Amino acid sequence: MAEALAIRFSLRVAASLEIQHLRVCSDCQTLIRAINNRAMVSEIFGVVADINHLSSLFISISFAFIP
């Protein structure tokens, strides 16, 4: 949950700085899968929905799992 909150916060900051292209990397495979596949993980559903909404503010954005 903490990592999802951190990504949401980071997207808000990046959007406020008018960054247009972004790559988000995380070692939390469950979170990255939930974001990329728009999966419903009950514990983080609301935060992932916010992340997906914020993603629309960027020209290009990608989320990658980094082990």
TrEMBL record:
Residues 1-67 form the RNase H type-1 domain. Pfam families: RVT_3. It comes from Brassica oleracea (Wild cabbage). One of its GO terms (molecular function) is nucleic acid binding. InterPro entries: RNase_H-like_dom_plant (IPR044730), RNaseH_domain (IPR002156), RNaseH_sf (IPR036397). Coiled coil: none annotated. CDD domains: RNase_H_like. This is RNase H type-1 domain-containing protein.
